[in-house]
């Protein structure tokens, strides 16, 4: 519950602080005094967005801080997931700088706006006139039924199953589109792949063929020069090899004159051996070199195949062609794997849909089981609030699974005897809407885990004895939930355990909104003024005392 609220530099509020009662707190004050401004500040504390226009003094930052007792609310897991230190006393703080920068803190730890919003939703429920209008929304109505039926866990389970099914469905559609596109390209890619495969490409083939073609095209020149080289080395009258042998013999005769000559002779011997080997290889190469027009044509044809494929695929080497071939193999193969994957994901999707149907049926049965009880309890509560002839009927249909299940409901309402129930937007006045929403909140009070509920003029459109009963109903709710109610009715004001008065202070050069907790005498005077105006009579004072004594 909220144990302390501080608001600084917000709109008309220079500085405000209150420590609400753990039971029913009533806030009164003239229109425009600042009650709604307080709600705006609390909304900021709970994660609403803001700008610098809300600053009372645009030279200072706005600070809104709420201290909550959360010892009984089992929020340890939330704090652990958010990486925030847990304490039974939780402090939420929002700061808005003059530059427009917003910061949020939980227990002095900086957090994101989403984090403080998520935590705030577990600590407070602000019911405004807008929420009353929401009662006419069918989605909101379905959520009320789920809260009343205690479907939170089942609804979360269904939601997870439905999200899984929708993801599989999206994946299936995406894969179908990929397969359709791949199948369009399959024939062409298969043709290209077969063409490359038939070519039986080898990584270094092109360079080898180009060298081979050069030799074939210049065979006669190569043969002539090889023959001439062999003549010079070993076959002419004055060949190199004969001269080298003579030189080796002469140097060998000098060995007895020094070790140096021995080394020289050995080197000449090595040269003779190497030169003889070279001569043999030259002779062998010359014998093998022959002009071969047929072979030349074969090599040219093979190179033409390679060059044609390279131009077609905008490649420069066989290595690039082989990379393209591998890519085509992957594309063609992917069509088959996509087909298999599509079949697999379809089976998985169908299984997920069956799970959705099972959970949707369970959720629907749980909802339908409480329809009559929900209607009956609301009838009784509305009768207590001066609407004995009110009729409320839940119209129910089922359809295809959606994010909220298979149920489509509409709450039909009639406030008058003999009138056929219609949708709430057509059948209920503002006051009737307010009373109906209060009854709904009353029914849900035992079924929700909201520690603090704030009502913003829930008593709109009621008066007299009905207002007294509304106040008593709220007193009953306050036994399990801390309530804060903004009201203009003296009957409501008299039911509070604590009474706060919001007023404008015009004594300085600027209007300031202030709040104070009323003493018993101040409370009597305020309620008397709410009954009879600024100058209440003795009768109004007596009526105020009687209301407080009820």
Automatic annotation (TrEMBL):
Stated family: Belongs to the RecN family.
| This protein's GO CC annotations | bacterial nucleoid
Name the CDD domains on file: ABC_RecN
All copies of the RecF/RecN/SMC N-terminal domain together span 6-506
The UniProt keyword set, sorted, is:
ATP-binding, Coiled coil, DNA damage, DNA repair, Nucleotide-binding
Q: Which residues form a coiled coil?
A: 151-229
The protein's matches in Pfam families, at most eight in alphabetical order, are given as:
SMC_N
Task: Indicate what this protein is called per its UniProt record.
Answer: DNA repair protein RecN
A GO molecular function term, named singly, is: ATP binding
Q: What does this protein do?
A: May be involved in recombinational repair of damaged DNA.
Q: Which NCBIfam families match?
A: recN
Entry superkingdom: Bacteria
What Gene Ontology biological process does one annotation of this record name? SOS response
């Amino acid at each position: 519950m909220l144990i302390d609220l501080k608001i600084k530099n917000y709109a008309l509020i220079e500085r405000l602080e209150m420590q609400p009662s753990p039971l029913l707190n009533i806030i009164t004050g003239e229109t425009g005094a600042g009650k709604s401004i307080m709600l705006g500040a609390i909304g900021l504390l709970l994660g609403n967005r803001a700008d610098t226009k809300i600053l009372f003094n645009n030279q200072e930052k706005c600070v809104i801080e709420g201290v909550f007792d959360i010892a009984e609310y089992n929020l340890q897991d939330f704090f652990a997931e958010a990486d925030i230190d847990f304490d039974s006393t939780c402090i939420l703080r929002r700061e808005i700088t003059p530059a427009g920068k917003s910061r949020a803190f939980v227990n002095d730890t900086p957090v994101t706006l989403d984090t403080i919003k998520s935590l705030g939703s577990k600590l407070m429920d602000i019911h405004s006139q807008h929420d009353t209008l929401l009662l006419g929304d069918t989605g909101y109505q379905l959520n009320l039924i789920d809260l009343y039926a205690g479907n939170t866990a089942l609804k979360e389970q269904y939601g997870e199953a439905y999200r899984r099914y929708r993801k599989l469905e999206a994946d299936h559609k995406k894969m179908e589109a990929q397969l359709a596109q791949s199948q369009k390209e399959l024939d062409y890619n298969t043709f290209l792949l077969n063409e490359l495969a038939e070519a039986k490409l080898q990584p270094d083939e092109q360079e080898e063929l180009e060298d081979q073609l050069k030799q074939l095209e210049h065979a006669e020149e190569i043969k002539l020069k090889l023959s001439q080289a062999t003549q010079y080395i070993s076959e002419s009258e004055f060949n190199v090899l004969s001269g080298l042998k003579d030189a080796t013999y002469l140097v060998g005769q000098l060995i007895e004159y020094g070790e140096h000559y021995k080394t020289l002779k050995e080197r000449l011997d090595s040269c003779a051996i190497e030169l003889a080997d070279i001569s043999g290889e030259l002779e062998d190469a010359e014998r093998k070199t022959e002009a071969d027009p047929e072979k030349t044509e074969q090599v040219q044809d093979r190179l033409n195949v390679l060059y044609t494929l390279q131009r077609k695929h905008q490649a420069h080497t066989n290595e690039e062609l082989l990379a393209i071939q591998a890519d085509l193999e992957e594309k063609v193969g992917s069509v088959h794997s996509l087909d298999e994957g599509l079949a697999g994901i379809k089976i998985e999707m169908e299984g997920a849909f069956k799970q959705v149907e099972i959970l949707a049926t369970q959720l629907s049965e749980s909802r339908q089981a409480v329809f009559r009880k929900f209607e009956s309890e609301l009838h009784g509560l509305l009768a207590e609030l001066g609407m004995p002839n009110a009729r409320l009927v839940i119209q129910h249909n089922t359809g295809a699974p959606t994010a909220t299940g298979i149920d489509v409901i509409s709450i039909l309402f009639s406030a008058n005897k003999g009138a056929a129930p219609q949708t709430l937007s057509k059948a209920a006045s503002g006051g009737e809407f307010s009373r109906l929403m209060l009854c709904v909140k009353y029914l849900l009070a035992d079924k929700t885990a909201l520690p603090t509920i704030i009502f913003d003029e829930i008593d709109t459109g009621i008066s007299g004895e009905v207002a007294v009963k509304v106040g008593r109903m709220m007193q009953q709710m306050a036994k399990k939930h801390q309530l804060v109610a903004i009201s203009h009715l003296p009957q409501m004001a008299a039911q509070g355990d604590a009474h706060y008065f919001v007023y404008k202070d015009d004594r300085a050069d600027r209007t300031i909104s202030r709040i104070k907790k009323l003493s018993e005498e101040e409370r009597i005077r305020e309620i008397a003024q709410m009954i009879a105006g600024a100058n209440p009579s003795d009768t109004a004072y007596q009526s105020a005392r009687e209301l407080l004594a009820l």
